[in-house]
């Protein structure tokens, strides 16, 4: 008998990050992701005046959005695993689009502190989030 893997995807419609100015720190709405284990963040820099890189963090909650934890990266040296807050950063030479894929195990997530390095008042971006369950 063949094995069937079900996949469910949902495009988040209320991210709250349409046409945001990159010369300020921008935060998304709290996004429910209960039952999902994959997250894709798509950043589209729609206007560019002077920014050189877009950066942001991702936070997750397992208690409905009361307590938040930043997603972590890790490095192992001499048997010690060291954690650091994950900061996502992408240098762009012109307007453009990039995507970040994350495995998640939260009930809620949010994007924090999306900004553009050396951004001017003309630097703007849209952010789209999709959730999936594999």
How many strands in all?
12
Whole-number total of structural domains: 1
| Shape descriptor | globular
Order of helices and strands: EEEEEEEEEEEE
The share of residues in helices is under 10%
Global structural class:
mainly beta
Return the average pLDDT rounded to an integer.
90
Q: Main β-sheet: number of strands, strand sense, barrel status? A: 5 strands, antiparallel
Low-confidence stretches: none
**Gap between N and C termini:** 20 Å
Q: Tell me what the CATH architecture is.
A: Sandwich
CATH class: Mainly Beta
Radius of gyration computed on alpha carbons:
16 Å
Strand content: over 45%
Question: Treating each run of at least 4 consecutive H or I residues as one helix, how many helices?
Answer: 0
SSE blueprint:
Blueprint: E1 8-12, E2 20-21, E3 31-32, E4 38-47, E5 53-61, E6 69-70, E7 72-77, E8 80-85, E9 88-91, E10 96-103, E11 108-116, E12 124-133
Antiparallel strand pairs: 1-12, 2-12, 3-11, 4-10, 4-12, 5-6, 5-9, 5-11, 7-8
């Amino acid at each position: 008998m063949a094995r069937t893997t079900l996949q469910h995807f949902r495009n988040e419609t209320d991210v709250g990050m349409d046409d945001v100015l990159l010369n300020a720190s921008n935060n998304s709405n709290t996004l429910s992701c209960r039952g999902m284990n994959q997250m894709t963040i798509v950043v589209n820099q729609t206007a560019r005046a002077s920014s050189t890189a877009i950066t942001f963090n991702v936070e997750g909650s397992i208690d409905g959005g009361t307590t938040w934890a930043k997603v972590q990266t890790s490095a192992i040296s001499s048997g010690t695993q060291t954690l650091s807050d994950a900061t996502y950063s992408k240098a762009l030479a012109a307007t453009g689009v990039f995507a970040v894929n994350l495995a998640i195990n939260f009930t809620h997530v949010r994007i924090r502190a999306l900004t553009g390095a050396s951004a001017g008042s003309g630097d703007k971006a849209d952010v789209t989030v999709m959730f999936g369950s594999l």
